[in-house]
Amino acid sequence: MTHGLVLGKFYPPHKGHIHLITEAKKKCDELTVLVCSLQREKIPGELRFEWMQNLFPDPKIHLIWVQDENPQYPEEDPDFWKVWRRTIESHTKRKVDYLFTSEEYGDPLSKVLGCTHTLIDLERNSIPISASQIRETPLKHWQWIPELIRPYFVKRIVLTGSESVGKTSLTQILAKHFQTNWIPEFAREYLESKENPMDESDFLPIARGHLLSEVEAAKTSNGILFLDTDLLTTKVYLERYYESEIPWLTERALGLKYESSLFLDIDIPWIQDQLRDLGEERESMRTRFLQAMKEANRDFYWIRGDYREREKQAIKIVKQIQNLPMNPESFTKELRRLRNFE
């Protein structure tokens, strides 16, 4: 049986990697894929290996996580090729017949390994993307990110502020403009469907429902997800109405990280409805929200003016956010834990 080898950082995996591995598997009976990571890299190797396992469930494709802190370029070590041969041989445990790469290092490495090198799409004609391009501007290269891992690269933007500042309408406008998803304030949906008046016991299911909505919407978002409020808002209202705290809620309200927040000021008229009762407290509630933002260490943009001016400000800000690099915080074990309800 012929044995092929692919190795790479997959930092992150993209559709070019999928093309390489798919084509390589066609040319050998069994394929070993080495997922190589360094501790200093911003996407943990453990997570990349997990992604690769989900992307390639084929039992004939053997995925192995390599954690050796090897040199990355020949000029870094006079024994560069020997170092990598030792790593490859210690992880594959059998003779490599074919080396498959999309890189120029394939020829010298194949000579060291004593195998045949097959080059696949060196010029990136089939899949014109690199992992570094995705790290630098993921939204610009959204089509090349596998659907499975896109939620980690979604830029979540929270619209926040006190009652009746136009959060919902602006969230909808932004989602339509940027052709993506938005999630409504879960508390409003929950309370409108509830027969009895709100009480303290409602806050945990509201918080859990809102976070679940965020997690689900991120799976199909087009690079950006707009949130009409978040758990920090739920925390503020729990304190305001009941002077109470729920540890599960507090941990996530303060610990969850977002790409940015748009803080809507109170310089538009307050509008009464059945779920609003703090019209006389607009100033004090704005202060409460600003304190909460500071407590959660959230950066934000002020949104002020009439409705049209707010829309223009927000669109300009979001366009800037679209061009930002990937957010390393999105890949931390702690943030994954908080979003996975662990």
Number of helices: 13
Q: Major sheet, described briefly?
A: 5 strands, parallel
Q: What CATH architecture of the largest domain would you give?
A: 3-Layer(aba) Sandwich
Rough outline? elongated
Helix content: 40-55%
Going across the biggest sheet, name each strand in turn. Answer: 3-2-1-4-5
- The quaternary organization reads as single chain
CATH topology of the largest domain: Rossmann fold
Q: What separation lies between the terminal Cα atoms?
A: 43 Å
Gyration radius over CA? 25 Å
Enumerate the spans where pLDDT stays under 50 for 5 or more consecutive residues: none
Number of domains: 2
Question: What is the CATH top level name of the largest domain?
Answer: Alpha Beta
Q: Which class of secondary structure composition applies to the elements?
A: alpha/beta
